[in-house]
Design a protein that fits this description.
Keywords: Aminotransferase, Transferase. It comes from Caproicibacterium amylolyticum. GO terms for molecular function: L-aspartate:2-oxoglutarate aminotransferase activity. It contains 13 helices and 13 strands. By secondary structure, the chain is α/β, with parallel strands linked by helices. The strands form three sheets. The protein has an eight-stranded mixed β-sheet with strand order 2-9-8-7-6-3-4-5, sandwiched between helices. It binds 4'-deoxy-4'-aminopyridoxal-5'-phosphate. 4'-deoxy-4'-aminopyridoxal-5'-phosphate binds next to helix 4.
């Protein structure tokens, strides 16, 4: 198949007519699929149902230290849960606070705390004038939304195959004290699926930001979410920061949302003692403690890191074929046409597609018209503004495998139709 850009106007017209006919036929099938959010499928949720049998009215409800988990107490979380979440994030248990079910909630709370009360003895962010936050893009829309909500100016940092462009990060943070943080998904990034290189992690650990209260928000949401036998390996930022005496710089986040249940998992954050004390002071007014019965359930079900890896292997068995189905369809229908590039991640929840510039919104709209909902075009950029209108995040985990192929085929059809329209506009 000829590259679209090399086609004559006449060839494009006839291709467009052919694709439109196929599109109308697809529409008539009345598909109703959702590839918008990184949600586990029902079969994945079923994997953790055994966890609900861990506790019943006969259980003694005690933690290993004898703590009655039905009662108030243990605001940092059960010691064994702190240890497990610490292992997941790469820090010692004493540097971990276990929260409720959502790590995004803990990120929001951390920004909120810094806004109103400041971090580690510095002035509250809200008293420091107009502030900025670095947003590597394409990135996670809900990260960007948190800092937009709090009134930050969002600064786009290009995402490379090694992670955020560290030349840009070093230059900006080194010279501008109004920059207070950066969002990072260091392993199997949302949506590009890349893992930060060792050099990127080392450069993060060695940052010398102009702002003493600048923080790296290290959201390791996909730290054990492998799709292959050759997993990416992420260097431990905590260890690297400690080597540089920079342990106040990073804030770590993770959850079991995509290990057990997104609606009822366990979230945690990790940080230096100094940072944690600031946050403890904040949480102390907010809650008398997290849900320790859910922690008990998780400990009984997952047990340890081996248990987590075994559980992730089961997830992989269910979702890797979905990723493969999408990739195969893309390869068959889009490769060599010069109108799309896509990622082939070793883990995580997303495939990131760059369609022809100026075609992302139209592709998403066409998919919607024919019954497949995708993440809004632009969502992967600050202010939902993709300067090239090119990036689309595809989340293959939620629809059943049988329907994934139909959804991916429709995507390819719509991306091609949008490209034809765009090229004809220019012709
Ligand atoms: N961080 C990233 C990078 C995510 O992709 C998601 C979910 N899509 C979250 C955080 C949400 O995590 P939680 O369920 O723990 O709030």
């Amino acid at each position: 198949m000829l590259e679209f850009q090399k086609m004559s106007e006449k060839e494009l017209q006839s291709l467009k007519a052919e694709l439109t006919e196929k599109f109308e036929a697809c529409k008539a099938q009345g598909l109703k699929l959702n590839m918008a959010r990184g949600k586990p499928g029902a079969d994945q949720l079923a994997l953790s149902m055994g966890m609900l049998d861990a506790l019943n009215s006969k259980s003694d409800m005690k933690a290993s230290d004898g703590m009655d988990c039905r009662n108030y107490g243990e605001p940092d979380g059960l010691p064994e849960m702190r240890q497990l979440m610490g292992q997941l994030m790469g820090l010692p248990a004493e540097n971990v606070i276990v929260g409720g079910n959502s790590s995004l909630n803990m990120m929001f709370d951390t920004v909120s705390c810094a806004m109103t009360h400041g971090l580690a003895g510095e002035k509250p962010w809200c008293q420091q004038g107009k502030l900025k936050f670095l947003c590597p893009a394409p990135g996670y829309d809900r990260h960007f939304a948190v800092t937009e909500y709090f009134g930050f100016e969002l600064i786009t940092v290009p995402m490379l195959s090694t992670g955020p462009d560290m030349d840009v990060v070093e230059k900006l943070t080194g010279s501008d004290a109004s920059i207070k943080g950066i969002w990072c998904v260091p392993k199997y990034a949302n949506p590009t699926g890349i893992t930060f290189s060792d050099e990127t992690v080392r450069r993060f650990a060695a940052l010398k930001p102009a702002a003493p209260d600048f923080r790296i928000f290290w959201d390791n949401a996909y730290c054990v979410h492998e799709l292959t036998d050759t997993p990416d390996v992420l260097l431990n930022l905590w260890e690297e920061c400690r080597k540089n005496g920079n342990e106040d710089l990073p804030l770590f986040f993770a959850s079991t949302s995509k290990i057990t249940f997104p609606g009822a998992g366990i979230a945690a954050m990790g940080a230096s003692e100094k940072n944690l004390n600031t946050l403890r002071e904040h949480y102390k007014y907010q809650t008398i403690g997290p849900d320790k019965l859910n922690q008990l359930r998780h400990l009984s079900f997952l047990k340890n890191m081996d248990g987590i890896h075994a559980q992730m292997q089961k997830h992989r068995t269910l979702i890797a074929p979905k990723f493969e189905a999408v990739e195969k369809t893309f390869q068959e229908q889009l490769a060599g046409k010069g109108i799309a590039e896509w990622t082939k991640p070793n883990g995580g929840y997303f495939i990131s597609v760059d369609v022809l510039n100026g075609c992302a919104k139209r592709t998403v709209a066409l998919c919607k018209e024919a019954g497949v909902t995708l993440t809004g075009a632009g969502a992967t950029y600050p202010y939902k503004k993709d300067p090239n209108d090119s990036n689309i995040r595809v989340a293959p985990t939620y629809p059943p495998l049988a329907e994934i192929k139909a959804a991916a085929e429709l995507f390819c059809l719509c991306a091609q139709l949008a490209a034809c329209e765009k090229l004809l506009e220019k012709a």
